[in-house]
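pasting for the record
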Amino acid sequence: MQVIEVLGRIFLSTLFLIEGINKIFNYEGTIQYMESFSVPGYLAIPAIILEILFPLLLIIGYQTKIAALVMMIFTIVVAIIFHTNFDDQMQFITFFKDIAIAGGFIIIFVNGAGKFSVDYKLKSNKTNA
């Protein structure tokens, strides 16, 4: 079961890693898209850092609960800002996909990373010391 938890963390994180990397290679397009929703373009850099750093933390299971909480908040904010045109079927689906992903992050936040994680290793080292 522990391997399944790692796969879950990887599956949730991969989407954000890919999006963060794509934002780097399409930086101007990212800024234009954000500004079309009245989001300041200077927030592209923090978004890129967040979409790369926190998923990596989730994958390795370090500071897992904090990373999951940050990603949950980020995902809900993105859904609310960018995907609330419910007249567009794709935006409707994307909004609820984001809410479902946030639900996955909530589960990780509540349960932690499990045995196959840096958090577990650090905790077991403290217990054995």
